[in-house]
Amino acid sequence: MRILAVNLRAGGNAATISRVLQRASYLDADTLVFSEYRDNAVGAKLRSEAERRGFAHQASGPARRGNGVLIAAVQDFRSIPNPFGLAEDEYPGAVVQATFGDVDLYGVYLPGQDRKRPHMRCLIALAQRTKETGGSVMCVGDFNSGRNETDIEINVRSGRIRDEFSTADLYAQLETSWTEAWAYLHPGRFEFSWYPFRLDPDHASRSGWRIDKAFLSAALLPRLRSAEYDHGIRRDRLSDHSGLIVEVDV
What we know:
The protein is 24% helix and 27% strand. The chain is of the alpha+beta class. It has a single domain (2-248), classed as 4-Layer Sandwich (Deoxyribonuclease I, Chain A). Helix 3 (117-133) packs parallel to helix 5. It is globular. The mean pLDDT is 94.
């Protein structure tokens, strides 16, 4: 199973949808997780174009009034929108669950700042439960959170904490039960998946954040084959985020 997670940047736009999906085909992805998906005209174009390219099985949460998640796959899956039953004012479209065989995949777009705390607490409870039961779970997408020491470029470059994630405390709790795939496979390395969006291709920003991630439960971790960022999506200005490709045996 080869998963590409991409933040569409405010729902994406009609001019770049085809190029994003062409990139997914080039990367040989069979499952797509789109964050900042919106259930509007551009979202309809995305779903239609994805289906035309073979990603016929799709699921999304309620995303009519803001950013949400769309999962599209070549193979069929069972889905649960808003699996944690969050209320309307708690961004219920932020998480979608998809089950592929014995693997539960959670696609996420966690809202900014402390607004993501209800989602993080639900994910922590899920991670603790799967640690006890041995379930095979992956959670992938835009977490808008991370480690202050390693996931914020200005901190890495300065050697000091000059900026912080508002939910770094909950992120640390999540890591006690689940393993973050890219960090696990690339110890001691630094890459950043989001930079402020600029049309100037020659601008060299030093303000990166690593917020696009995949977490695996202990039972699924031995089946992890690769986790890499595709910075081409961002460098081609299809989004302000790089893509994340994760491959696991299912």
